[in-house]
Design a protein that fits this description.
- This protein is of the alpha/beta class.
- The chain folds into two domains: 37 residues, no CATH class; 190 residues, Vaccinia Virus protein VP39 (Rossmann fold).
- Helix content is 34%, strand content 17%.
- A seven-stranded mixed beta sheet has the order 3-2-1-4-5-7-6.
- The longest helix is centred in the first third of the chain and has 27 residues.
- The radius of gyration is 19 Å and the shape is globular.
- The chain starts with a helix and ends in a 12-residue tail after the last strand.
């Protein structure tokens, strides 16, 4: 009976699936065309700041952060998506440390350097990507408003977290049990040293792992606007990790 009911009343996603297959080829054509056009203009991040942070065929499959879960695909974040995310950071920004977990070639680190954070840090497990990020940092011609910056080739599951209020930017670098292990570390850090930690989860494919944790309070869930220059992920979830005994409050609008 349940199966019959589902077949007679398919979900909106199931009803839209045939149209998704029809729209996918023109979507890919427009995406690749606009990306190729903008790649050679000052609107392209790498061209504007003399760095190489875009994902290439050689980068696909490179392990990010930690290899136990298998290699994660390297992907660069849209600057428009990052600027949208930063709107959810409370002022003043110089109260905050910024940590990018799975920093790859360094694009998020370079974008964060344009804000007056106390310290900006990238953590990357893969040695090749880390060395590319170091070279990019030497060449970067963009704004440097952060008080200090560092790039660490380290395992995110053991790398120390900074004292003081901290933003964790996370683009699906860990999956499954490894993600749970990292979230456990964040909760333990707040218990040991009560402070504000904001967790920015870009492309939140395993959001349910955070939703079932009572210490993670939802600040925002939604999407950034389309970026015709970069054409990357738009989904974002922002959480505040609360110390034990903190009463839950409703998400911000």
């Amino acid at each position: 009976m349940i199966r019959q009911s589902v077949e007679q009343n398919p979900s909106p996603t199931a009803r839209a699936r045939p149209f998704i297959h029809i729209l996918r080829p023109p979507y890919r054509f427009v995406r690749h065309t606009t990306h190729a056009v903008f790649r050679h203009t000052p609107l392209n991040f790498d061209r504007a700041y003399d760095v190489d942070t875009e994902n290439t065929e050689a980068d696909i499959g490179i392990a990010k952060v930690q290899p136990r879960e298998g290699p994660q695909r390297y992907a660069a974040t849209s600057p428009k998506h990052f600027r949208f995310a930063m709107r959810h950071v409370p002022s003043p920004l110089d109260d905050w440390n910024f940590v990018d977990i799975g920093s790859g070639k360094g694009r998020i680190v370079f974008l964060a350097m344009g804000y007056p954070f106390r310290h900006v840090r990238g953590v990357e497990y893969d040695r090749d990507l880390h060395e590319k990020a170091e070279e990019n940092l030497r060449r970067f011609r963009g704004p440097r408003r952060a008080a200090s910056v560092s790039l660490d080739c380290a395992d995110a599951l053991s790398a120390p977290l900074p004292a003081g209020d901290t933003i964790i930017f996370f683009y699906n670098s860990l999956r499954g049990p490894m993600l749970d292990e990292f979230l456990d570390r964040l909760e333990a850090s707040v218990r040991a040293d009560p402070r504000r930690i904001l967790f920015f989860y870009s492309n939140p494919k395993e959001n349910e792992r955070l939703a079932r944790r009572t210490s993670f309070r939802t600040i925002f869930q939604g999407r950034s606007g389309y970026d015709p220059v970069a054409w990357s992920n738009r989904r974002l979830a922002v959480y505040e990790i609360q110390p034990p005994g903190t009463s839950a409050s409703p998400p911000s609008k």
